[in-house]
Amino acid sequence: MFMVAIFSGLIAGKRRTIEDVPSHLKEPVLADLTTLGLDGYGNPVVNEQTA
Q: How confident is the model over 1-51, as pLDDT tens digits?
């Protein structure tokens, strides 16, 4: 899943957004970003437990 890592890195670096990801890769890219604590736009996900 090399392309998942590429798109995750680009989104984390704020160079792309989830809209730029091909549809067949969106789900695994979002899953990868979630493990990094990021949303589909590279912003930190704030949940009620960490806030």
A: 899 999 999 999 999 999 999 999 999 999 999 999 999 999 999 877 755
The whole-angstrom distance between residue 51's C-alpha and the CA centroid of its chain comes to 20
CA 41 distance to own-chain centroid = 7
CB 40 within 8 A of CB 11: yes
CA-CA-CA-CA torsion for 31, 11, 24, 37, nearest 10 degrees? 10
**What are the DSSP calls for 1-20, one per residue?**
-HHHHHHHHHHHTTS--GGG
